[in-house]
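Practice problem: predict the structure.
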Amino acid sequence: MGNYIGALDLGTTSNRFIIFDRRGRIVGVGQKEHEQIFPQPGWVEHDPMEIWRNTGDVIRAALAKTGLSGKDIVAVGITNQRETTLVWDKRTGQPHMNAIVWQDTRTDALCRRLAQEGGQDRFRAKTGLPLSTYFAGPKLRWILDNVDSAQKGAEKGEALYGTIESWIIWWLTGGPTGGSHVTDVTNASRTLLMNLETLSWDEDILKSLKIPARMLPRIVPSIDSETWGTTHKDGPLGAEVPVCGALGDQQAALVGQTCFDVGDAKNTYGTGCFLLLNTGTEAVASSHGMLTTVAYQIRGEKPVYCLEGSINVAGALVQWLRDNLEFIKHAAEIEPLAKSVADNGGAYIVPAFSGLFAPYWRSDARGVLVGLTGFIKRGHIARAVLEAVAYQALDVVEAMEKDSGVELGSLRVDGGMVVNELLMQFQADILGVPVVRPKITETTALGAASAAALASGFVSGIDELKNNWRMDKTWQPKMSEDQRQKGIKGWKKAVERTLNWID
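Answer:
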């Protein structure tokens, strides 16, 4: 029996394979970026075949670096960019078109048309989600409407739909020669097609979206002792390894941060920001713009739900400052630049580049830079960029507390931006609660590994995962209440200025 767990992290910009030991420590990593394809404004695509090829490359790279073989891996867990949608031919494995990425807004007109009948919330009671370009179901409908071969294949029962984890599990377990066509409950809960109560595809919604049920994957628990198949001997692992854990990336981070108790919350600072609050085995309906979604499910147990606040632009704002405005050469330069001034000088940036996500859900909003005076320097703008990330998280936390009645005691943080100490301190200040960074900030991959470790019996249970979790640093709030309220008031005014921009 091997001594390691493999986690496949299928992200928006890259794929990674991370090998963890029994204590949840990283022993090896392989990583490879894939192309971001922008056919026209608001459209974002990925090449599914490139993602599959890169998956093989990163698995082989991580094994080569560590000197391990596939036989040393007990099980594989997968985490993925959620909502990214593709349709492929089950006989050949060829996609009918590029994958439509979660950020893509091409389904805007379709969502508006669907909303004419029952409003933006017509499916919310069943799915926990508003009608939005964000989710996978409308993207799938768009593909069927616009790609002839996909629609024909769907009618014949030869086309398969999936999010990225479905696509890769299918290939890993055999592809056209009997690959397993599954999606875990967390990813299924992001399609607008799954009923949160029954954890099955909702027939009425499929009817109204005209989606044939037989092209959809089988919905399975995230942590599944009845594996979905094993990897092939001639595949990238070179051994038969069970694939038995899958979680959408944000839910994986929740599991990786061991947020297993009601009221536990984490925020991931990546391209976007995703704040999740564990609400237990009860799906809490949101009236404040949060999403009700599945946190995870262990086979044979009730699902655990969470409230989620999705922020579209977080780290992407720093990239925009670097690439579009050429303000800085490297992302790491933003912190010293922001530290060169004492505060934002009255300047705020609201990055509503393609509308505002939670808690506003306004596709008519566009980004603003406000409060400019002759006093403002580069440092103030850099600071306003970092503060925008923290203020957006505050908007989400306030909405969650109203929905759930659960007060946030502290916030566990992860993702690329948590190395930024200025941001972490400002986040603690503006929330008024401690912000806690773990030793392993690769919590998304750790969550996928934890799922596979639980499913395969590699760890004894949730308590062992909690014992493995280690804290790195905690930031305590230091800001005066007056200063905090003044900052928040300015932010709320800035958000108002973004609305009604697009007619």
